Amino acid sequence: MHDPVADTPTPAAHDAYDTLVRRFARMGHIANALGILGWDKDTMMPSGAADSRAESIATLSVLHHGIMTTPDMADLLAAAPEPGDAWQAANLQEMRRLHAHAMAVPPDLVEAASRAASRCEMAWRTARRDSDFASLLPYLEDVLARTREIAHAKAEALGLSPYDALLDQYDPGTRQADIDPVFRRLSTQLPGLIADALEHQRAHPAPALPRGPFATAAQAALGQEIMRTVGFDMARGRLDVSLHPFCGGAEDDVRITTRYEEGDFLNALMGVVHESGHALYEQGLPRAWHSQPVGAARGMSLHESQSLLMEMQVCRSAEFMTWAAPVIATALGGDIQSPEWSADTLHRQVTRVRPGFIRVDADEVTYPAHILVRYEMETALINGQMTLHDLPGAFNARLYDLLGLRVTEDRLGCLQDIHWPSGSWGYFPTYTLGAMIAAQLREAAQKACPTLMEDIARGDFSTLLTWLRTHVHHRASSAAMRDIVRDATGAPPGPDAYLRHLRHRYCGQ
Amino acid sequence: MHDPVADTPTPAAHDAYDTLVRRFARMGHIANALGILGWDKDTMMPSGAADSRAESIATLSVLHHGIMTTPDMADLLAAAPEPGDAWQAANLQEMRRLHAHAMAVPPDLVEAASRAASRCEMAWRTARRDSDFASLLPYLEDVLARTREIAHAKAEALGLSPYDALLDQYDPGTRQADIDPVFRRLSTQLPGLIADALEHQRAHPAPALPRGPFATAAQAALGQEIMRTVGFDMARGRLDVSLHPFCGGAEDDVRITTRYEEGDFLNALMGVVHESGHALYEQGLPRAWHSQPVGAARGMSLHESQSLLMEMQVCRSAEFMTWAAPVIATALGGDIQSPEWSADTLHRQVTRVRPGFIRVDADEVTYPAHILVRYEMETALINGQMTLHDLPGAFNARLYDLLGLRVTEDRLGCLQDIHWPSGSWGYFPTYTLGAMIAAQLREAAQKACPTLMEDIARGDFSTLLTWLRTHVHHRASSAAMRDIVRDATGAPPGPDAYLRHLRHRYCGQ
């Protein structure tokens, strides 16, 4: 069928790269449309529009996939001469990687997997509510089977192991062989570190927080003020409300969300700074390469490093609270003089350690334990070393090893996350890789700019942002994540800076 | 180029219709996406996203056009056997009409016209501000030339006159030969009617309105309450704010906007009921035919009749204000007992007659004069009976005939509207055709349901909505507009009911 966005006849080799650039630009424009439609679905869309919206999103996704899988695409990718320019060469390489991912999986498997995921997500909502793993099992078996088929198909096409092929979808270039030693190291250190942190915390009880209610409008105005302060460009983005905070939207239109509770302003605020970290990365990508593969963010680990650097490394620090405490008190009508609005109070509140069952509620110290469990489970399941029947037992045993908590209901254990039911296998490790990279980048930035944290204590984020723009944001996908981290910090992603950070902040070491 | 949304190979004749249904459904899903992206552009989008959004909208429009102009489309439309079912037959007929419109104009002319319009819109903003027609002239010459080329190309393809070919884009099936006698009749009656209305009004001076400020939030809450009352389904739509009120969005997601002034709550409220009239039409279209041509609204005249029936015929009536006055007073913190919040005060305020230069500010009685002038000008210009050099003089002379106002600056005359600079020629008559049809439908509904206005005086819109659903909304594009109006009212669109309505409401006759 004739496609008006095509450039037929297939051009000669010397035009091949230009043709590819035009096609990927069109895919980028469709992706931007999908970004806004997705944001709208979670923030603005009336409930009755769900089916109509699903049809539009599906149609645009098919059109996007259709451009990627055009029959002459492989010829163009093969015919295109290696560009002399490094960015163009990296762009062509990314085009080839994305094309390989798209072509590796037969359309009927894509469809079967997406149907299995939709069914499983439905079953999961009930199963989690009823803490009934047995009722989810047949659906999750189906999702896992399809995911493993996809993993093997991509492994074949990309010359990777099945788990690495899944990982590569979220974190290009990262391999299980890179993660295993790092996570092993973490898992040996974590239990002792958590014990020390709790011990240290007992010696420093947290003072009482100011009591609400805090009007949503005032919290939103405060959120926007903080966004502007950390460097968010309000002319190229927005702040809105959704059930779960996220960063979405499109190029030059980065939209973050949070959720307000009138009784607790810190949750919404930490949501805003976390998503602002993601947004600053998107807003900092080189505009000259918009809508080209090389211009995209370099995977989920580095993306999460940007949100965690902003939230955990910077905005939960004593220095940030030195500047922020009076700003927050003023915005929420509190008394700047009173101890409950002091920087010390707020800092200690946002650094409380409370081991718990729920990953998304976990603090900075216990969070990695939740990820280590999930990573070990999903690698074993994908690699066929474990079956889903054994998942709850294995999950709970491992959580006990790491956190000392006994799961009594699966809704507090392996049923709590939507990732596996929705088919997102290979995603979990990026959270903790991101946390480690965040600490590593912060240490490097601090070393390069000794005034970094003093500047932040004055509400001046330009030192931090300038460094991040140069060493992370502006590089986009022009290099592998490991190389971006190595160039920025002198070492590949590792746990040392992260462990130093946790011991320093939580154990007073 | 391979297109994944195609169904290759081209199917046998007996499948042709089903194939067309699938393709038009896909175009419908893209149109829904474009509807949300357009709404977002005017309500939510940050300024910096303008270019990125324009790229996305252009790409989706090209994809939509590409499906319509697929080479085998003509064969499919020819091969499809006449369906026995009347709706399917009407659907096929609409498919052929839309395809003919799309194929009639060569792509390079479409592009040249759109470039000319963009340039002219830019020039128009300055020219209107400076009231400098001469500076606009070369750009408007270019737009008119391209528009006439398009008109002749479509006239050729559709077997219509050039002006009718343009009109057919906005109001399928309506012809200049239908409009001329009706508008001539109107133009002979209007000056006298306006004089009588002003005379009658002098005898009944309007009481003072309540003074503001009226908080935007309170006005918005009132707007939503009125929307629900008139029958707007809030689960399938929204109310938001934009510079100019509009009704947009998508299927099952009809989004209207208004603009709030703290000093005047009636403007925003009348904007809400006007757009709600459009929205009720969209929400009342048969869901079984969503995303099919036959399921779409039947042209701009009938669409405008729905907004004007709700705003002018119903919500500016004494009966509506009997119900609404206390609701409005309560919502805006007014005193229900005080005369300035009485139904009589509000009714008389929303039926004031004030001849003026600006069309969009015109009242119900003088509005048609603005349309008659524009219709006479654009038909003469498209049919080559006049040149743009003569436009200002002719425009001002004709406005003086009809309204007795002398235009001293073109920004108050032929420079005030964006329609011509943006290439929307053949659109203006649908406003006044809509006003006439609205009066005709209201009379017919009243005759069929004698309690219609008493029900509205109790805030019960179900009588009206039920009648409109049956006689207008549910018919969608299954018949020509003239036939829908004739079936509903016993006569084709004409000026009589409209003139009766104006004389009754404004001249006490």
H/E element order of chain A: HHHHHHHHHEEEHHHHHHHHHHH
What's the CATH topology label of the largest domain in chain A? Neurolysin, domain 3
Query: Biggest interface in this structure?
Result: A-B, 51 and 52 residues
Strand content of chain A: under 5%
Weakly predicted, low-confidence segments of chain A: 1-11
Structural class of chain A: mainly alpha
Number of domains of chain A: 2
Distance between the termini of chain A: 67 Å
What's the CATH first level of the largest domain in chain A? Mainly Alpha
- Give the biggest sheet of chain A: 3 strands, mixed
Overall pLDDT confidence of chain A: 95
**What is the CATH architecture term of the largest domain in chain A?**
Orthogonal Bundle
Key traits:
homodimer, 509 residues, Neurolysin, domain 3, 2 domains, 3-stranded mixed β-sheet, 20 helices, 3 strands, 3% strand, globular, protease (chains A, B), hydrolase (chains A, B), Peptidase_M32_Taq (chains A, B), zinc (chains A, B), metal ion binding (chains A, B)
